[in-house]
Specification:
Length: 337
Amino acid sequence: MNRKVRFISLLFFTLTLYSLHASNSRESKIQNVLYWADWLKQNEYTTYADYENELNFDTIDAPVDDKYEFAQTEIYYTKKANVYCTEIYLKGIKDRMLAMLQIEGSGWFPYLKIFRFDSKKQKWTIYYSGKGPLGECGVVYPIRHPITGYTFFFEQKINYDNKRLISYDLLSLENKKWKVTESVKARYVYNLTDEQKEWISPELIEKMAAFDYSFLGYKKDHPGTIELIVNERKIVAKLYHTSVGRMASYYDITVYSREREVFKKNEKVSEEEKVLLTLGTQWGLNIVEKDNKSYLVYIGFGAENRASIENLSLNVIDLSSLKTVHQSYANCDIIFE
């Protein structure tokens, strides 16, 4: 199928879609946004490798700091972090334009640059620059409208604390400012079994995802250190931050025996606190009292997803014996509203 046939097919399908969803109902708006989400999964973008010969350190008219990623020493990393580099068409601008998105660092932050070609200088200028860590730009994908020919943008709005999807947005870029034209919010739904509900609830998972530990007595969210004393045990969870942007990510959990006095050779001596169990990096934790026993409940990475608090593992440890008494997976559905 050649390009012309593909374009006509897409145009016909899109016109049909628009006519079917011409009403202003909320459901039709949700379906419209989700249509473009599905469209993105089925289409590929050109990348920086396709434009390296014409967009580079020598052809960009900008201060060195603004084009540092195109320097010879950095170009390997620029290519590695590149999501796309593609032509865009903004209303009111006749010059050639290229949008280029990078995803960088352990925080998975987006960096967007839009270049505009100056035909007089025969150089590219930086029309727009946005950095995710500063809230200037999200993860956006340009889409050329099949009817108007102008570019609009599809945004995956992400919570960088837990890498959860917040919403899908349709955006326009007008005078270098983002404008949301349509948006659908993502809601995470956990279908827990009866046995899992004995240890955790969907509401508690949501609190852990938001680093809200008010249920353990911490008034401020994102507590840097959670310390819990349970009988002869001490549980310490330390918040881990990404190296780029210093965003919270998860907790390192360690179980200690408490310092205590014991009898040795008929003499009372002090036994120092010592590490009993290291659980490593986990998403959240809680203490559950059940049948006169105390249990450490923690949620961790699911079998398939290590990026965000979506599908997760549920683990329960008997704090007296330090044995695992429950381990299972909780699957998540995302509902758009």
